[in-house]
Fold Glycoside hydrolase family 38 N-terminal domain-containing protein.
Amino acid sequence: MAPKLLAFFQRWWAEKIPNIQAIVRKLVDLGQLEFINGGWCMHDEAAVHYIDMIDQTTLGHWMIKKQFNNSPRAGWQIDPFGHSAVQAYLLGVELGFDSLHFARIDYQEKEKRKADKGLEVIWRGSRTFGSSSQIFTNVFPVNYSPPDGFGFEVLDENILPVQDDMLMFDYNVEERVNDFVAAAIAQFSVCRILVPEYGQSYLSREQGIADFKLKLASMT
């Protein structure tokens, strides 16, 4: 699980009793819950001034550091319609991110990149700073939802639950595992898998969550 908009997370966090907050802190410490991007919001990259981009990102990262003594490692700009070198360098490499992920690019470019297996690149965000401004960047081949049938949300009509009780008539663990593996293979078939250098941990596949999909936080 990976919260990415601190404005939403803080509303949820403020309502939780200390025992629940302690559980969340433990999950963060264990690496089972990881903040990605970490901004107060997911800012646009074209219509806003870079100072505003820095300010809102600083606020979100400050809150994470204060409450969890933790820092995000991956950029997550999946909603902005267009992307800038400022994001790749100033709000990527300079933040200590290992990777940057987004979904929206021109459909013609996306189809060409899928055909050329060019959805994963090393993006150099600054000509001036050269290789020190590089960051592993991943463009999602379709969108940022989980594979079909794997949303696991009560309002998702396409969900096929995993039934792991072998005594039940609809036991389907092997089938569901095979479906997920097939979905992963289909996605990776349009990507070149980039091997990170020693000491770096590039994240090349996210189990994405589309907008407002998780309605019942207490159940997820």
